Amino acid sequence: MTPERFGERLLAWWDEHGRKDLPWQLNKSPYRVWVSEIMLQQTQVKTVIPFYQRFMARFPTVQALAEAPEDEVMHHWTGLGYYARARNLHKAAKIVSTDYQGDFPGTVEALQALPGIGRSTAGAIAAFTMGQSSAIMDGNVKRVLCRFLGIREWPGASHMQARLWELAERYTPKQRTGDYNQAMMDLGATLCTRSKPSCLLCPFNDSCIARLEDLTKSIPASKPKTDKPVKSTVMLMLQQQDGRVYLEKRPANGIWGGLYSFKEFEDLDAAQTWLDLKGYRYQLEPWACFRHTFSHYHLDIQPVLARLENDVTEVSEAESVWLQVVLNDIEIGLAAPVKKLLAQIEKTQ
Fold it and tell me: SMART domains annotated for this entry (predicted)?
């Protein structure tokens, strides 16, 4: 099937069955599409929708986002994960607001120069809001192309990324590019799903190599398995007699960058030594260890509650806060395990 015929058939399917009422498809603008594309990286649509709606209610324009404090941006991102996305979103908003007077640059190349905007996100903004003929490449597009063309290699390999981009550009039409890109994502999200694809309803069920050769379970190929390393940390939860707990802001680089967290130590002895050197009087209460998994390793967390018996003000030179544990009132970005532990503290108060 030629790329032209593929596009015609895909658009005919989308005109009848495609998703056209997602929040970012309404009142479409470069800003709204950009925020949605960043949120949708590594995150499913159903998860993104409520976060997107709250985010847009608080930051309705790129200027509003640019002027907001970073802590507030991180707070509204809490729960979405991959927090570098939020920091880059904030940085890019400032650049668009100051260098471009609030108007997004009009080329894919200029869009890619903004922090956190890669080739696919730039293509989506240009195609969906500027009428440009630019391809995209998300997980749905990769899956559809790999199955339709019978590509058996793992699509994440660097040489495969280049090949898939070449194919995406070849298949993307010059007309109705935005609709075509949305149709590719919709087909992958609703019919050509990772498991149990609805091949009988697919507009390409008579020409998809993966279906014809019964390869839908093995295409796209999974990433070659490697055992994730396991790291460990002790989270020291300092609590004043009045119930306030201590949180400090993490460095911008590294895990949970820019979010607030408890102090961390290599082991319990190191935490206790630090407390003793500080001259604190305290009672220690170790809690049950739990595991938090990142994309590239497991982190075993040993929480330890330190009930302080003397008043403490300055703990370290890091940017920090002492907070009463009322989760609904906390308006700073929190790492997911920290939020979990704060919820446990709140229950025991």
Answer: ENDO3c (SM00478)
321: which residues sit within 8 A by CB, 6+ positions away? 246, 247, 248, 260, 332
Give the residue extent of every domain in the chain: 3-212, 230-348
CA dihedral 21, 22, 23, 29 (to 10 degrees): -90
124 is written with which tokens? 């989506």
Q: Domain 3-212, what fold?
A: Endonuclease III; domain 1 (1.10.340)
pTM, entire model: 0.80
308 CB contacts (<8 Å, ≥6 apart)?
238, 239, 240, 241, 280, 281, 282
Tell me which residues are annotated as active site: 37
pLDDT tens profile 305-329 = 999 998 777 777 778 888 898 888 8
How is residue 209 written in tokens? 């190599």
Structure tokens at 25: 């498809």
